[in-house]
Amino acid sequence: MTREVREPRDDEEWRASYELRWRVLRAPWDQPRGSERDEQEERSLHRVCVELAADGALLRVIGTARAHHLGEGRAQIRYMAVEESCRGEGVGADLLISLEEALRADGVVEVVLNARESALRFYERAGYRVVGEAETLYGEIPHARMAKSL
Ligand SMILES: CC(C)(COP(=O)(O)OP(=O)(O)OC[C@H]1O[C@@H](n2cnc3c(N)ncnc32)[C@H](O)[C@@H]1OP(=O)(O)O)[C@@H](O)C(=O)NCCC(=O)NCCS
After folding, report:
1. What is the total count of domains within the chain?
2. What CATH number should be reported for the domain holding residue 75?
3. Which site from 53, 74, 92, 115 is most exposed, i.e. has the minimal number of CB atoms within 10 Å?
């Protein structure tokens, strides 16, 4: 088995990516299917981390992340999710690096995101700094606004 970070390649990978988003980021707060997407999807950069069999066949999608341009050299990362049993193995860090490389190539100089407090340390390890408070999601998940210069 190998792992690879890449753009989703086909319908199966797109479906698994949105399913993972929903399961990790929405279902625990009783949010309906569909709430894991927004109006920026078609204009965004998408990454999945896939597990592949020796012959290259997809075994499963274990991580997902997205970035969209804000204009003036800025972009926002959203919807970072890693399968619970695969956390702490560098998948999230690899997803971030892959998005940042693509954003840099697009001329982006600053990336911002709204981090759940439980994920603050993860983003700090990746070079992001807290720059303010962000909205509290579903009335119970405090978020911090974070930024990183590329
Ligand atoms: C946050 C999340 C994406 C991190 O993914 P991951 O694959 O577990 O992270 P990695 O293994 O790449 O970790 C990279 C580094 O961050 C650290 N780290 C990861 N999650 C952490 C956490 N919650 N608290 C503290 N440190 C953390 C790791 O120890 C590692 O440190 P190292 O560089 O010293 O080895 C994942 O835990 C997740 O999906 N959480 C639930 C959904 C979520 O909160 N998404 C973010 C919404 S803002």
Report:
1. 1
2. 3.40.630.30
3. 53
